User: Which sequence fits this backbone?
């Protein structure tokens, strides 16, 4: 409609190119006037005048046909759009019909998303949590947007740390009675303490690394055994956080198949490599990097970065896009990785850099053995959630309390991490995370539970049959209360927020939306009676809206990797 109006004024713009944004002055606004003024400056005029001309060019007939729009107004350079009652009715009907599919997009590209990829030398700690939660939430949001996404964990199974781990595993007995990643870190810490006292041990470590890169099967097997133990424990922790990887890709495969040496050979042929005290480095100054990139050590062994280049070359043909999630300490190396791939003429990954999350307790270090594990944090959160559930629902069974405490504790942890933009550092706040009133995931989960409770009571009194709420259940034109229309408009933003989060790779945008969705449901719940309504048709309409709200909230929680309790 707006593109047609612009075309009638002599501007060539497609419908999908019209920019829309949310506005406090309307349901939707567009900066189209700015865009067209900048497009053809020779036409003169200004954005405010342009906005008036476009609005005037929208014919009454086209506005009538667009029955989802009530009216169009102009405020300065902005064109404001107001939704019609038909739009609100259609939104509720869409949710009722589509259910768990509501809000899904239509993207079709294949994406390989790498995240977490923590070194398998011990359990995950708080520093790893943001990577895992950020990566998994991106995975879920991109999937909801329609993309074909595969989550990968890149396993460092042959580097120096793994050589130390292999040496330690042969020297110290592993405790088989504890979680395997804890058994691994115990011997890893002991090994580093011994190496600090006797540096000659490093010679044994280097010898092991050379044996692996030369294909020595016995050494490779010892590396693999240690790594498998650590990965088993790490995977257990990730699953507790509702984080799942589709594929674990091992570094060693790129040594075994010769891909690493192929990368080194091709980089040498670019003429951009040079010797640096026996090591081979790449000059990336043409790409803005003063620091050279080491791709082969002086002892002729490869580095993590070299193998990472081979990994990305392997991934590239399998997808349309590659996305890597890295901590801020990888900002330089990720930039150099992209530059080296460009030098080789290869596809480069999109990189999501996140700042670190910390606890008031202080810093963490796996090598020194002084760190707070992800397991400890999650247990604390579940214990604190249990205390809250105990206060609120003392009459419930122990099984109920534990189940809900797990949902709430894990959900609170995930939400407190993901609600903050990845480019900002954050300190994990226990109290805010477990806020049932407004700030944390429990607030959103509680809104879902409230909606579920209303619907359960409606089934008991016969207002909802066994068939449930399906298409054509009620007359949605009856939903005219301010809290009802505000809630419906918020529900209608679901897909837009998914697309916005997916396009910018910024899941915090959707996390904030989920909280706003719960807030609008609570306003509806507080001021609009549902079960105690004498008008049977109005009651059905409000039950349908309750169902729509519950569905939208559940879908939103699913996109955030958070469980949706039916009772809290």
Assistant:
């Amino acid at each position: 409609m707006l593109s047609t109006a612009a075309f009638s004024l002599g501007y060539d713009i497609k419908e999908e190119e019209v920019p829309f944004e949310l506005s406090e002055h309307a349901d939707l606004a567009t900066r189209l006037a700015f865009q067209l003024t900048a497009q053809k400056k020779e036409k003169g005029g200004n954005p405010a005048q342009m906005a008036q001309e476009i609005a005037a060019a929208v014919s009454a007939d086209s506005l009538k046909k667009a029955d989802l729009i009530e009216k169009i107004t102009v405020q300065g350079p902005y064109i404001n759009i107001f939704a019609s009652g038909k739009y609100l009715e259609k939104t509720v009907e869409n949710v009722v019909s589509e259910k768990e599919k509501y809000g899904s997009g239509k993207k079709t590209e294949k994406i390989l998303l790498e995240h977490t990829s923590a070194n398998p030398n011990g359990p995950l700690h708080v520093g790893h949590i943001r990577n895992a939660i950020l990566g998994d939430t991106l995975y879920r949001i991109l999937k909801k947007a329609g993309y074909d996404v595969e989550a990968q964990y890149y396993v460092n199974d042959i580097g120096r740390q793994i050589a130390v781990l292999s040496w330690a595993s042969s020297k110290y007995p592993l405790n088989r009675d504890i979680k395997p990643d804890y058994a691994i870190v115990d011997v890893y810490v002991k090994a580093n303490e011994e190496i600090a006292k006797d540096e000659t041990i490093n010679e044994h470590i280097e010898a092991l690394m050379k044996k692996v890169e030369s294909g020595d099967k016995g050494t490779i097997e010892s590396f693999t055994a240690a790594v498998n133990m650590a990965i088993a424990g790490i995977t257990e922790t990730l699953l507790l956080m509702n984080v799942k990887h589709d594929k674990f890709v091992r570094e060693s495969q790129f040594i075994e198949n010769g891909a690493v040496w192929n990368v080194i050979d091709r980089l040498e042929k670019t003429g951009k490599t040079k010797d640096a005290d026996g090591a081979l480095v790449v000059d990336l100054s043409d790409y803005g990097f003063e620091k050279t990139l080491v791709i082969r050590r002086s002892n002729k062994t490869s580095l993590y970065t070299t193998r990472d280049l081979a990994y990305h070359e392997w991934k590239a043909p399998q997808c349309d896009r590659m996305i890597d999630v890295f901590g801020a300490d990888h900002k330089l190396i990720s930039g150099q990785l992209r530059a080296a791939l460009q030098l080789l003429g290869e596809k480069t990954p999109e990189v999501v850099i996140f700042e670190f999350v910390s606890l008031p307790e202080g810093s963490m270090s796996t090598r020194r053995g002084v760190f707070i594990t992800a397991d400890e944090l999650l247990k604390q959160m579940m214990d604190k959630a249990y205390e809250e559930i105990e206060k609120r629902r003392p009459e419930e069974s122990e099984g109920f309390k534990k189940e809900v405490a797990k949902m709430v504790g894990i959900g609170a942890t995930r939400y407190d991490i993901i609600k903050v933009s990845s480019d900002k550092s954050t300190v994990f706040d226990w109290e805010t995370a477990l806020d049932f009133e407004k700030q944390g995931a429990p607030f959103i989960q509680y809104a879902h539970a409230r909606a579920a409770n209303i619907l359960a009571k409606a089934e008991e009194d016969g207002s909802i049959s066994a068939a449930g709420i399906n298409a054509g259940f009620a007359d949605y034109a009856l939903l005219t209360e301010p809290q009802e229309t505000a809630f419906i408009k918020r529900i209608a933003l679901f897909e837009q927020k998914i697309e916005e989060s997916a396009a910018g790779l910024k899941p915090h945008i959707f996390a904030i939306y989920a909280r706003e969705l719960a807030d609008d449901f609570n306003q509806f719940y507080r001021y609009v009676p549902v079960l105690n309504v004498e008008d049977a048709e109005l009651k059905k309409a409000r039950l349908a809206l309750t169902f729509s709200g519950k569905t939208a909230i559940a879908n939103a929680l699913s996109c955030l990797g958070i469980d949706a309790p039916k009772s809290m």
Summary: The first strand starts at residue 20 and ends at 21. The chain is about 55% helix and 10% strand.
